[in-house]
What we know:
alpha+beta, single chain, 18 strands, 3 domains
Amino acid sequence: MAPLLRSATDELRTIAKRVMRERGLLPEFSRAVRDEASAMAGPATASSASIRDLRGLAWASIDNDDSRDLDQLTVAKARPDGEVTIFVAVADVDALVAAGSAIDAHARVNTTSVYTAAQVFPMLPEKLSTDLTSLAEDTDRLAVVVEMTVAADGAMPASDLYRARVRNHAKLAYNGVSAWLEGNAPPPPQLSAVTELDANLRLQDRVAQALKRVRHRRGALCLETLEARAVFTEDGVLTDLRPDVKNRARELIEDFMIAANGVTARFLARSGYASLRRVLRSPERWARIVALAESLGEHLPETPDAVALDAFLTKRSDAEPATFADLSLTVVKLLGKGEYVLERPGERGAGHFGLAVRDYTHATAPNRRFPDLVVQRLLKAALDGDRTPYPDDELAALARHCTEQEDNAAKVERHVRKSAAALLLERRVGEHFDGIVTGASEKGTWVRIASPMVEGRVVRGFEGLDVGDRVEVELVHTDASRGYIDFARVKEKT
């Protein structure tokens, strides 16, 4: 596929900024925000005796190859009784970003970093998110640490939270670590620079797999969704949108973050603090999921059942690995969207259907998500025995706002992705593509194609189509400015 010209890439950035504004998101930092960031001379420091010094542990980060806004570090320590202690360090962003500051106000409006195919719109100024509040390699930083004791069977008999100083000894990337863990590549060169880091990562991987097995026994869903990632040349020209494939290292970090977020939620509840929870309710379109299973010769109960659904998904993953990502996408669409809600101590919330956990918050990415920064402030108040920084009515309003802005950010990312694809596809009008229906409602019917991986609207022949149906479509029109990619269903030959 031919790369876009520099002018087309610039056009994409203009589109991204416009759509950000249309969705109620701020694409640029105000003068007040820039001034606050400029005045910060260095990372946060603190002298409290309660802050532990854990810089000597073999901490490492694992993230995307190009990520600089590093929120978490992990390390494991084997115990004589056979159990393993997992440490997750989360960047102490609150130590520099004061509640009520101009930087905080900007973050509160957007609530998330927005990752578009044109450019990244960070929630915090890059001087913070990629430097002063990032857990960057070979730097000392303040962090909130979640400590978890994990038994061989994946049970978690003990956990703790506290503040600490940490040091990232190795900046690692998902793809390199995953290929090494799976035996398909030599170890990343950073492993040899840190004593026994290779053995530590293998221990982390073993514990992560045990945690995953526990969740799947409870009904955590085996899903393999693909996210389109923009591919640029060295001089910044967009060439393609390719799927970001899940791998062993991504799963390791996901499993630890899910566990750490659960520990955080339970800690706040025990401490008597209300909190923001991340929930995914029982799916409203369960009947369609049942029908989808029946079309594949499988049976699901009439009422939502996560354990049964996961068994179905696991079976399909083994039977049809090549098409499992499409099935996963269909199920994700039918499950519905997650949301933030207020949960008070003693309440029993909806939990997260897809993860098969009841206690779950977002606390591990405060450089990128405002709910995580809010939860971090609640945690620090609980650790210090202070009054909550957010009364219940404010937390409830924040939950609604963060849910809405997360949805707006997703729409911006999708729009810009489609604008990029429209530019890449504009010379291919009239070509046919195989696709899968990803949305079907009164608002319209959408189909996703594989190359470039993008969704478009079916403007002709959509009658009778539903989520999960496979269909051949013809590209009939593109409009990069509006993010329009229009398809017509190709009639089946008789």
